[in-house]
Structure formats: C-alpha cells, structure tokens
Specification:
This protein is α/β, with parallel strands linked by helices and 856 residues long. The chain folds into five domains: 31-141 and 533-616, 3-Layer(aba) Sandwich (Rossmann fold); 153-242 and 459-530, no CATH class; 268-455, Isoleucyl-tRNA Synthetase, domain 2; 679-791, Isoleucyl-tRNA Synthetase, Domain 1 (Orthogonal Bundle), CATH 1.10.730.10; 794-855, Ubiquitin-like (UB roll), CATH 3.10.20.590. It contains 29 helices and 36 strands. The strands form 13 sheets. A four-stranded parallel sheet has the order 2-1-26-28, with helices on both faces. A four-stranded antiparallel sheet has the order 8-7-11-21. A hairpin with a 2-residue loop joins β9 and β10. α2 (15-29) packs across α27 (757-770) and α21 (633-640) crosses α22 (642-651). The longest helix is centred in the last third of the chain and has 19 residues, at 698-716. The protein is globular. The protein binds one RNA strand of 89 nucleotides through α10, β13, β17, α14 and β30.
RNA sequence: GCCCGGGUGGCGAAACCGGCAGACGCAAAGGACUUAAAAUCCUUUUCCCGGCAACGGGAGUGCGGGUUCAAGUCCCGCCCCGGGCACCA
C-alpha cells in the first residue's frame, strides 16, 4: 500500500477522517451500549430484538472479507431496528480455544494465551474499523476463566443429569440416588459418561477426534491420517435427545436445507429388532431391520466384525479365516470401509442362526459392510430386497429369495420398494405396510422381536487430548469420577513449558504433575473439552456477560430470549453453512438440557437462521493464499473506506448466494457514496448552494418515499442489494435536481444510515449545523422516517397494450379508470385498430393497472 | 449413486401471487468540462434484420416438450456448474 497509489487516486470524499471521527465518537459515548432490564436507561415499552453473528475464531491471519459479509447484514438490521424503536441486543466475542493457537505454541513455546490475546486485539480493532454497532461492554472470550467457569458449570449440570424416559426431560441424578439406585446404575444413565469406545485417534495432532472432524480417513484440521482404536472417553448422551432434536426443528425459521440436513444427520429410522436364535446354542443374535416384512427372504446373516458374538459362533474350521478377516478390517481406515471400496468382503463364521418365522437354518457371516456402531451391529440379509445384501450375495453365491411382489411392470432383480408379500405364509398377500405391522405384532406376541427406532446420530465424543481447551471439572479417585465442587470453578489449565503432544493418548495436561494431583489419592481429569463446548452457549452469556453468580441472570435471560411466542430465543442468527450440523446441533442439545433443568426459558436457542454465501476471489475461485486471490479487508478500507466495503459486500448479490469479489464493483459503490457526498458539497468541496430549506417538489417526494418503503421491505427480507439499488435511484434523482430540499436529504440520510453509518452521520451533522430546523443528531439515535403512501399516488398510469400477447402499444390513462372504459380505450387506439384490421377479436383480457391483451 | 443450491446481456445482478425481461451497478462507446489527462456530469448500450432518422419487425432467461390470452416464473423429460452426504440395514 504505497502512499503513492492512495494519494494519486482521486478521493471521492474524506472517508479516512470521517470514519475515524465517528468511530471515536461511538467509542467515547458508548453509543451502542444496550441496557438490560432493571438497568439505567432501559425502556420496557420497546420490543426486544436479539441479532447474533456466529462469533469468530480469532486466527492469526486477521479478518478476511467473508467475515464482514454476515456482520454487515446484522449490523444493518441492528441499526435499522434501533431506529424503528426496538431494544437491540447485538454482541460480539471470541471463540478462542482451539488447535491453531496450540500448534503455534508447540512451534514457538509461546503461551496460547499470549497469541490468542494478540489476535483478539487485532480482530476487535478490525471490526471497529468497519463501524459495527456491537455493544462491546458485553464482549466475551471463551478462554477467559470468567467465561469457561460457566462452560464447566454447564458440563457439571449435564454430568449430574439423566434423561427421564417418561417425560423425555433431563432431571438431576440426585433423584435417582433418592430412589436408592446404585452408583453404577446412576453412572450408566448420566448425560455425561465415560465409555470405552472406538475412537478416531490422530497421531499427527496427538488427539482423538469426533467422527465429524474426520474426513475420508484424515483429520479435518491438518489432514493427518486417523486410525481407529479403543479408548476410555468422556461422552455426552446427545442421542437421548434425538427425537426432540428432530421434532423441535419444526417451529424454527431456518432454511429448509439446514433443517433437512439436521434431520438426516440424526437419521431416525423406524423398524423392528428381531431375535434369531443361534443354532446349537442358547444365544441369540438381535438384528435391526426396517423391513421385517421380508423376514422370509432372509437367506443369511451378517455380523459386524467387531460384534461380541463372533467368537462364540465361529466354528473351529473357520476360526483362522475369521481372525484374519478381523485383523484386516481393523487395519482399514473408514475410507476403505465405505462405498468407495467397490467389492464387498466378508467370511462365513461357520455358525448358523435360526429364522424365527420358519425355523430355517441360515449361515452367519461377518462382513465390514455391517457397522458395529449402528442398530444392533447385526443384520438379516435379504438379497432380493436390499441392494447391499444383493451385491454381497452375488459376490459369494448366496441364495436370493423373493418375498415381495413388485407392482405391475417392475422387473428389478433387487426390488426395494413397497409391493405385496409373497412366500411369507403368515401374511401372504398383504401390502408392504400391512405386512410390516402384522409381522411385528406376531414377533412381539412371541417375544421374538419388537418395534424399534434407531438413529444414525451417535453420542458425542466430548474429550480432546489437548492443552488449549477447557479442563474437565472432574476428579478421579479409586477408579471413580467425581464432580469438582462448584465453589472451585473455574478449573484453570496449568502453566506448561512444553505443549508438545505426548505421542500417546495421554493428554498434555498430564505433564503438570502438581496440577493433576488433587488429593492423597485423587487426580484431576486431564482431558479437555472440544472447541464446540464454548460456542454451545455463548449466546446466553452475551445477555449478561458480567454476571458472577449465574451463567446468565434470570430476568435478563427471560427478556432477551423469551418475550415472544416462538420456541427460539435469538431472533436472528447469521453465519456460514459450515456449521449447519455440528455447532447448531450441539448448541441445541445443551440448550435443551438447560431448558429442562429450568435455567433458560425457551426450548430452542435460535429462532431464525440465515446463512451467508461464500465470497469467491475475483477469479471466481475459492479464496486461498496458494491461489493468491485473497482480498484483504484492511486494504479495501484503506483505499475506499469502511462504508464502501460494507456497501459493496451488500450490493454484490443476495446474502445467501455464493458470489465473486470485484474491485470494480467496490469502485462503483464508492462512486455512489461520492455522489451522496456531492449532494451536499459542490465541486470545490464547499457547501452546495443547491441545498435549501425549500418545499420539496412532488417528484422528489415520490422517489424519497418509494425509497423509504423499498428499503424497509428489503431490509426485512434481507434483500440488501435491491435496497441499495433503490437508494441509487434516489440519489440519481436528487443529483439531477437543481434544488435539494434539506428535508428530503435528511430523510434520505436516515435511510442510508444503517448501510453507511459514518458518511451519513457526517453529512447529517453538516446539515444540522446549517439548518437548525433539523433535530440534532447523532443520526443513529433518531427515529426512522415515516413512509407516507400519499406521496406515491399519481393520477395517471401507463398501460401496456398487447395484441396476441405481444407488446404493441402503451396508453396513459387515469388511475381510477374502470375495466370497461380501459378496454374501449384500447380498442379505439390507432395502433390496435391498425393491427386488428377487420379481423375477429376473440377475447380481450384486462389486467387492472397493468395491461390489456387483445386476442385475435 | 443420493440430497441440496444454481444456470437470465460482455460481467455482478433485478423481476410482487403467471402480466412491459434485463431495474441498479460494472465494463464499453460517444459528448460536455479541461491546454491535456484524471475526476465529474450527460447520453447510448440484449442480439439480429430494415431505415439517414424518429421508428418498425423478429429472436431471446441452459436444452426439448407441455399448460395458458400471457411462462424467467407453473408441469414433464434432460444437460451443465457449485456444494454436501456416502454400505446407517
């Protein structure tokens, strides 16, 4: 950014001075501080509006142009709502735990707290330079002990709760204790529990990862290989909430795609568990199937290789083959086990199972296409009506038996749809849904099975072997876990000299021997929470960020989250699609637990969700350092000002859409702001003589009020690009006008203010200095102008005349013309008479206020 | 393979509930101002044909059909691009 470039470029207006001046003003006056109920300055008569941005991870690279996109949208809405008379809560904070800071610490030995602090400073500075109206008095940081104290506290609430089956609500485990339940029984029901599970161990990062953090067998962060191994881990019982997490999406105003995505992720599946006795044994294999009606078509069974019954079932002849196969599967990454591996593999165990409906003996195989983690880890294979089973049967020459007659005309070898049951004595001739019901009842009656629901959703692996995260408020003694007393929160991580992973699944915190030692025989838990933890509840902390006695004050929570009939508390939540599943699902889960326990007043956290679209580089490619197409917001602000950057990001296209950057486009909106400046200034930069306290002509009033109306509806619809287009129309009109009445200019500045707050404040101040009739600023504190439809009324309108659907003429007629008169006028017009030319008129369609179509 | 999102001028895009396709901006061209340039202001700009012109005619919203007085918009069948999921029984 050589000084040359910027000084040589013609300045449209002195944005540097203006922006710095107003940012200082806002800071010094705490213009955007929002009082809570019961605080000084709180006005209970106004409606509340909580607008939230997904808070950023303050990376070392600073802000990129993607951040200001959503942030500007919410800023406009916040400013607009305030001017329209709402109490607006619009906070910002930092999701600052996480790997990059820790990786940096490993490299440099510098404490992550230092780098995080530095990054936060930079981010805050950058956001302020964009002129966002955040209430900075509510700023939070997930790494601040005052904050994560409550993250740990919430964990303890989860730890100390179980799900009451009957009410489907979380209840304190103390109730189970009171009922005389044993410690083991209670531990087995806690919503936070320890289990030995197959985990994704990533040696490269020295940590275990959630399924969601593993992509194609590699870590999402860093792309290191990930292997499976069993480990004792903290888990959160999110599956207990599966049903509610699906059901309660209903009342939310979220994009349909995101709702669908969450539903699919949870993956509810209704069917039946069926017990197959193992031949020559007292054991049973329980399978889950969504097609119990195909029970007669089961020609073999498959267990997941990890299934506990495998050892027992395997015959001596098959043992070697089974062991070899299991070893082979254990080596495979998830990638190798998925559909990308074309050929199905498996081996027979030699064991046989008995089909409960007909007593038939069928062979039991193991194959890795059956997953231990879903359903019961075992299936009955019906190759005639399941593609995977069909493929497997083909591969190994297993029999295929058709038991569903497809509808007429369908000749698929493997038919998956609904039809009519055949070769199924108990319910032959029944349509599929009937057959399902009938066989399920039959099985239930004999104790051979029952109707069940399974979910794809797994419990949430909540532990990480990292340094830079929230320590668990847990103590181990004699192999048992206990909650750290609430009074001892927060549990602050120890200082370390060496952040290097241990190379084993033992977390780095274990190196701090003194810290780990809690008592004579007691040790601290050394795992830390995943990065998701802090973001699961941050929207609550914003409401009452300084509360020392509660995670959020009850009254403030009720006011900002409640106060409307919707299930969700935050009125508008804007962020990227990358959080469609994980963050939004986890936050909903925590929120529901807190709701059940009575700490929050709504069942859902976020009422309305909007995803902003990705901004691509100027070349239409994803921005990346390697492509060299990254746009730096600091530089854009330097060259065009923050108002231009804000305006351009909103003018590029619809918020939700993916769209490419354009430097020429920034120049375009920059010129527009220059034109706004010149509405008030002449070419020498002096106050323009065209600005006068004059009665505005009807033409200007019309365009002004059209603009007020359009900008209102467009902001409500978050259609910022079209709002800006209309403001451009308005400015073009004002520019062309020889007289620019100050009343019109002032109202226009109100309308532009949420989009370009700095420039409009400055111009308004200039106007008020000359015209004391105007109410004194700042503009942001004054009410939005009132739209008056009266100014839009015209007495004539233009009607399009079509002949056979083609535009052939236009007619100017009085607006109050009736259909008959209009029709007559059209038929009488020269052009129509000419085109009709004696032909028969079949029909005349009159669309009031729009057009008349003469059909020949 | 499946599920989303999207295909409209040279480019970003707009178009209420089916009613003038291309608002607004960019780029381009011409003009005014200027010694000159930049900046600014004004004008033109979907494509093709005819005309000196005002204008007139035709085509046109990824492709092919359909419904309708009228389709970018609704229905059926495809093609292409972007994103996500991926043996969940």
């Amino acid at each position: 950014m050589s000084g040359e470039k910027t000084t040589e470029k013609h300045r449209q207006y002195p944005y540097h001075e203006i922006e710095a001046k107003w940012q200082r003003f806002w800071d010094e006056n705490e213009t955007y501080r929002t009082p809570n109920p019961a605080e000084a300055g709180f006005d209970a008569s106004r409606p509340k509006f909580y607008v939230l941005d997904m808070f950023p991870y303050p990376s070392g690279d600073g802000l990129h142009v993607g951040h200001p996109e959503g942030y500007t949208a919410t800023d406009i809405i916040s400013r607009y709502r305030r001017k329209k008379g709402s109490n607006v809560l619009h906070p910002m904070g930092w999701d600052a735990f996480g790997l990059p800071a820790e990786q940096y610490a490993i490299k440099t030995g510098q404490h992550p707290r230092i780098t995080t602090g530095r990054n936060v400073e930079r981010f805050r500075e950058q956001l302020k330079r964009l002129g966002f109206c955040y209430d900075w008095s509510r700023e939070i940081n997930t790494t601040d002990p005052e904050y994560f104290k409550w993250t740990q506290w919430i964990f303890l609430q989860i730890y100390n709760s179980y799900l009451d089956e009957e009410t489907q609500k979380a209840r304190p485990v103390a109730e189970l204790e009171a009922r005389g339940m044993s410690r083991e029984e209670i531990d087995a029901r806690r919503l936070a529990y320890v289990a030995e599970v197959q985990v994704n161990w990533c040696p490269g990062l020295g940590t275990v990862l959630a399924n969601e953090e593993v992509l194609d067998g590699k870590s999402e962060v860093g792309g290191f290989p990930v292997e499976r191994r069993p480990l004792r881990q903290w888990m959160l019982r999110i599956t207990a909430y599966a049903e509610r997490l699906i059901e309660e999406l209903e009342g939310l105003d979220w994009p349909a795609g995101i709702k669908r995505h969450q539903r699919e992720w949870i993956g509810r599946s209704e069917g039946a568990d069926v017990r197959f006795p193992v031949a020559a044994s007292t054991k049973h294999i329980t399978v889950f199937t969504t097609r119990p009606d195909t029970l007669y078509g089961a020609t073999y069974m498959v267990l997941a290789p990890e299934h506990p019954l495998v050892d027992e079932i395997t015959t001596p002849e098959q043992r070697a083959a089974v062991e070899a196969y299991r070893a082979e599967v254990a080596m495979k990454s998830d990638l190798d086990r998925t559909a990308l591996a074309k050929e199905k593999t498996g081996v027979p165990t030699g064991g046989m199972a008995i089909n409960p409906v007909n007593g038939e003996h069928i062979p039991v195989w193991i194959a890795d296409y059956v997953l231990i983690s879903y359903g019961t880890g075992a299936i009955m294979a019906v190759p005639a009506h399941d593609e995977r089973d069909f493929e497997f049967a083909r591969q190994f020459g297993l029999p295929v038996r058709k038991v569903v007659e497809p509808p007429e005309g369908v000749t698929d070898e493997c038919f998956l749809g609904d039809g009519v049951a055949i070769h199924s004595p108990i319910f032959d001739g029944q349509p599929t849904p009937e057959a399902k019901r009938k066989i399920t009842a039959w099985l239930e009656g004999r104790g051979l099975g029952r109707k069940t629901i399974h979910y794809k959703l797994r419990d949430w692996l909540f532990a990480r072997q990292r340094y830079w995260g929230e320590p668990f408020p847990i103590i181990w003694e004699d192999g048992r876990h206990y909650a750290v007393p609430e009074a001892e929160l927060p549990v602050v991580p120890p200082e370390l000299e060496d952040y290097q992973p241990t190379g084993t699944p033992e977390p780095p915190l274990a190196k701090a021997k003194e810290w780990v030692r809690y008592g004579e025989h007691a040790m601290r838990e050394t795992n830390t929470m995943p990065q998701w933890a802090g973001s699961c509840w941050y929207y609550l902390r914003f409401i009452d960020a300084k509360n020392h006695t509660r995670l959020v004050g009850a009254e403030a929570e009720r006011y900002w989250m409640g106060a409307n009939p919707n299930p969700g508390g935050v009125d508008l939540y804007v962020g990227g699609t990358e959080h469609a599943v994980l963050h939004l699902l986890y936050a909903r889960f925590w929120h529901k637990v807190l709701y059940d326990l009575g700490y929050v007043s709504t069942p859902e956290p976020f009422q309305k969700l909007v995803n902003q679209g990705l901004i691509l580089g100027e070349d239409g490619q994803k921005m990346s350092k390697s492509r060299g197409n990254v746009i730096n917001p600091d530089q854009v602000i330097e060259e065009y000002g923050a108002d231009s950057l804000r305006l351009f990001e909103m003018f590029m296209g619809p918020l939700e859409q993916v769209k490419p950057w354009s430097t020429k486009g920034v120049e375009g909106v920059y010129r527009f702001l220059g034109r706004v400046w010149r509405l008030v200034h002449d070419e020498n930069g002096d106050f323009s003589p065209k600005v006068r306290d004059a009665g505005p002509p009807a033409k200007l009033l019309r365009v002004l009020h059209e603009t007020i109306r359009k900008v209102e509806t467009d902001i409500d619809a978050m259609s910022f690009n079209t709002a800006i287009a209309q403001m451009m129309v308005c400015v073009n009109e004002l520019t062309a006008s020889e007289v620019r009445p100050v009343s019109v200019l002032a109202q226009f500045l109100h309308v532009l203010n949420p989009f370009a707050p700095h420039l409009t404040e400055e111009l308004y101040q200039i106007l008020t200095a000359r015209f004391p009739v105007l109410p004194p600023g700042p503009l942001s504190g004054l009410a939005w102008p009132k739209f008056d439809p009266g100014y839009l009324i015209e007495d004539t309108m233009e009607i399009v005349v079509q002949v056979n659907g083609k535009v052939r003429d236009r007619l100017v007629v009085p607006v109050d013309i009736d259909a008959e008169t209009l029709k007559a006028a059209v038929l009488a017009s020269e052009r129509v008479k000419e085109l009709v030319n004696g032909k028969e008129i079949k029909k005349v369609v009159v669309v009031p206020k729009r057009l008349v179509n003469v059909v020949l």
